[in-house]
Amino acid sequence: MAAASAAVRMLPDGGADDEERWLAEGIAGVQQNAFYMHRALDSNNLKDALKYSAQMLSELRTSRLSPHKYYELYMRAFDEMRKLEMFFREETRRGSCSVVDLYELVQHAGNVLPRLYLLCTVGSVYIKSKEAPAKDVLKDLVEMCRGIQHPLRGLFLRSYLSQISRDKLPDIGSEYEGDAESINDAVEFVLQNFIEMNKLWVRMQHQGPVREKEKRGKERNELRDLVGKNLHVLSQIEGVDLDMYKETVLPRILEQVVNCKDDLAQFYLMDCIIQVFPDEYHLQTLETLLSAFPQLQPSVDIKTVLSQLMDRLSNYAASSPEVLPEFLQVEAFAKFSNAIGKVIEAQPDMPVVGAVTLYVSLLTFTLRVHPDRLDYVDQVLGACVKKLSGKAKLEDSRATKQIIALLSAPLEKYSNIVTALELSNYPRVMDYLDNATTKVMAVVIIQSIMKNTTCISTSDKIEALFDLIKGLIKDMDGAQDDELDEEDFKEEQNSVARLIHMLHNDDHEEMLKILCTVQKHILLGGPKRLTFTVPSLVFSALKLVRRLQGQDGDVTGEDVPATPKKIFQILHQTIEALSCVPSPELALRLYLQCAEAANDCDLEPVAYEFFTQAFILYEEEIADSKAQITAIHLIIGTLQRMNIFGVENRDTLTHKTTGYSAKLLKKPDQCRAVYACSHLFWTDDQDGIMDGERVLLCLKRALRIANAAQQMANATRGSSGSVTLFIEILNK
């Protein structure tokens, strides 16, 4: 016994080369004894066959190999044992030896490990002979295997038992089926083997020095399938119906999972349960299954396992719509929501990213199984807000990524931001994003609206929408816009401008409310943003003016009906904000656009006011000579198209325009502006002006300026550009 004990004593770890040498020695021992065993089998010498097979199996008693190398050695021996099993079966069939005697005979092998391998091999033949009930033999074998308590050797021995017995279980419809209770015996055998294997597997973690803990974890991970195969066998037993699964199988498995208190085993086995058993079983035993999660070790990656369960059940619902009533019946959403709450409560140190990931999975499940229940969706978002409450804005990039996934899911599902706007907790979740991510999310929301051409048609919805995209339309607290890339900033603001163009309602009153809401938000945007957003608002408002053309009324108070006058008031305020920043040229253009619209609505005082504002801007804000040239030609072109002004107002405006034209910096520019003014006195429309005398005056004035330009050119020996001016005046 002392010698045997020494042989199996745990030896110190060697290097990779030593391990290869030990493996080679073990394989050589297996092959040598297998050779003599084959010779004994060929000569029908049972005594020698048992002797050499026991010696061959003794090679598996080594403690020097890692699990990976031990598996190689085990497979060599396993292949030989299949041949020995066929010999035993042939011997008992011929009557050379009774299977009962053989079962007794192998128990005389000297060492426990070879004895149990041989016992399992003969046990397989014993069951197949049907000379004893399968349940009795299996019970005997699973109890006998307790003789090996070394974790690695015990695991492989029980794996061998599982392998040779899987087709011999007393299952319903099996040739080994016994009485009505036999199915319970089959389940009990597999469960008992699973429990013992799991105990051995967990014990491996606690053997050896602490410094090698990580290495042992990796080695154990390589062996996990040996344990998991038992659950696969259980799932394949025909007799395991929903009732038996609910009453016996699942509670026994979960009891072992929870009690083993090993994070690797708990994670793997929970994952196994979800993968191997049918979706219908999970749905009907949801409460039992979920009750185990809060009891797992804090270090277990619960979010991954729970997410897989929710994904699997949501796929089940999507592929079989007829089972949806069952989800409602078992209150799947409430159970998942409750379980996630308990898991988070049981693990106070769970990182934010873990909790948010769980809520993302729950939201995905909800959107796939209960897409019509917006209250469920809002409940998930609310639970996430509760978890985040008391925390500052998220700085963990992984948690931020999960929050974006959480917020994007409803947009992708409903293809309609209007639905998301009904979720009260949606903006509350967004509040936990940092400024940069808030902008990213705002762009995602706008892109969703563009992609689905969503029409947002009420002022309260637009109020909610602008609250969501506030990161784009105003400076956030602590934000540094100077750090933002100029191109990115332009793209963001252009997306807001496109969004404003998509806001529409056929009802004039509601459309006016929409414009007022947009105005309120964009005027808070700061000077850099106004140049992008104000033009969109102005042209949207002018579209409404065209629809209202012909309506009029006195504008008093806030709740007045939508009339052109009311809208022009709003436009005046809006453009005025733009003219206060370094964008006077843009403000001037917009004033002229509004003047044209007022002309079409027969609102002379309004049109005159817009022209007045344009002239003030020209005088006070536009100093660049090139900008002045562009501005004066715009004023001339717009004024020419105006037909609403009375004689006095028109004279005032044309006189100012001509005066500004003659004061441009360069003579050629003055000349061109002045001869362009001649068009103001001769228009071809029905009520047009045909004042030939003033046209002539303009052209003569242009000639005087051209002459002066030529004299200056001659004095400085300049170019003949002034000749071109005479030709242009002649054309006029």
TrEMBL record:
Major location category of this protein: cytoplasm
GO cellular component terms given for this protein: cytosol; endosome membrane; Golgi apparatus; late endosome; retromer, cargo-selective complex
Pfam families: Vps35 (PF03635)
Membrane topology label: Peripheral membrane protein
Domain of life of the organism encoding this protein: Eukaryota
InterPro entries found in the cross-reference section: ARM-type_fold, Vps35, Vps35_C
One example of a Gene Ontology biological process annotation: intracellular protein transport
Disulfide bond recorded as keyword: no
Alphabetic keyword roster: Cytoplasm, Endosome, Golgi apparatus, Membrane, Protein transport, Transport
Subcellular location: Cytoplasm; Endosome membrane; Golgi apparatus, trans-Golgi network membrane; Prevacuolar compartment membrane
Family: Belongs to the VPS35 family.
Function: Plays a role in vesicular protein sorting.
Protein name: Vacuolar protein sorting-associated protein 35
Species of the source: Panicum virgatum
